[in-house]
Amino acid sequence: MCCHGDALVQKVCELYEQISSLESLKPSKDVNMLFTQLVLTCMPPSPIDVSKLCQGVQEIRSKLIRLCGEAEGLLENHFSTILGSYEHPLDHLTIFPYYSNYLKLGKLEFTILSQHFPHVPSKVAFVGSGPLPLTSIVLASNHLTTTSFHNYDIDPSANSKALGLVSSDPDLSKRMVFHTTDIMDVTNALKDYDVVFLAALVGMDKMEKLKIIDHLAKYMSPGATLMLRSAHGARAFLYPVIDPCDDLRGFEVLSVFHPTDEVINSVLIARKYALPAQHSSPIDPQGLNAGSIILPNKCSEIEAFNLLLNHAPQSWQHDD
C-alpha cells in the first residue's frame, strides 16, 4: 500500500493498482488510457526524489517500471508487426503514436553528442534496440547519415522484426546490423564503437543496470562515448534512474539534460576515461547554448531546464 501523503504519489499508487490488475498489457483502450494517465501524472516537473520514498512506494515503483517496460515492448511489437506488412515500412513510421517524440529525442541526443564528439562517428552501437528500433532509424536517417549502426538485442524475434523494417531501404539496409546476443557476452567487439547508446529499459533494476555499465566501462575503447537514458523527478516512476555521480564508474560525465516536455527520458553523455579514473572539468563551457546541462563538479547543482524543445505535452515517449 501507498505510505506517502503526497497527492502525486497517491495518484501513482492508484494507477499502479489499476495497471497491475489488467489481464493483459497488450495495446487496448484500457491499457492506453491507464498508461497515458500515468505519464501525464508523472510528466510535469516535480521536486520529488524517489530514492527518499518509503519502502512500500519503492516496491511499487520497481514493479511499475517493469510493467511500463513490458507494455512498451508489447506496443512496439504490435506496431512493428503492422509496419512490417507494408512494402516500404519506413514510409509509414508516422502510424506509431509516439513517432514525433522519437524525432525530438533523436534531435536532442544528436545535439548533445555533437557538442562533445568532435567528428561524425563511423560506427555506433545501440544496446536494447527492440522490435521497433526508432532511435537508430531516426539518427541514421536524419542526423548520422554515413554512420553504421550495430543494434544489439537479446530477443531473436525483436531483431527479425527490426531487420524486416529496414531491409527494403537501400541505404539503411547497408548501414544497420542486428546482433542477437546478451551485451554481457560482448567483449572485444565493444572496442569497435565510437559511441554506445544504452536504452533506458536495458537493466530494469539498479544492480542489473550497474553491471551492464561496468561491463561497458571494461570493454569500450578508451575515450569512446556512452549515451544513456535516465529519468528525473516523478518521471522516475516510469524508468530506471542513473545517478551521474555514483553510477558511471570508469566514465567522465560530460553533460546531463532533463527535458521538461513530452520527451520523458533524461539524457546523459559520458566518456570512457583514457587513463584510470580521474576527475577533470567539463570540456565544453559553451554547451548550454544547445540546451544541455554541463555537469558541475558538485553533482547536487544539476538543474532541470529545457532550452531546446517546446513544452506542448502530448503523451508517453517510448524508448527503444
UniProtKB/TrEMBL annotation:
Q: List the GO biological process terms.
A: nicotianamine biosynthetic process
Q: What is its EC number?
A: 2.5.1.43
Which Gene3D superfamilies has this protein been placed in? Vaccinia Virus protein VP39
* Homology family: Belongs to the nicotianamine synthase (NAS)-like family.
What is this protein for, i.e. what is its function?
Synthesizes nicotianamine, a polyamine which serves as a sensor for the physiological iron status within the plant, and/or might be involved in the transport of iron.
- Can you state which reaction this protein catalyses? 3 S-adenosyl-L-methionine = nicotianamine + 3 S-methyl-5'-thioadenosine + 3 H(+)
Q: Which UniProt keywords apply?
A: S-adenosyl-L-methionine, Transferase
InterPro entries in the cross-refs: Nicotian_synth, SAM-dependent_MTases_sf
Q: Which gene encodes it?
A: LOC110762851
Entry superkingdom: Eukaryota
Keyword S-adenosyl-L-methionine set for record: yes
Q: Which Pfam families match?
A: NAS
**Where are the membrane-spanning stretches?**
none
Record-level Gene Ontology MF annotations: nicotianamine synthase activity
Indicate what this protein is called per its UniProt record: Nicotianamine synthase
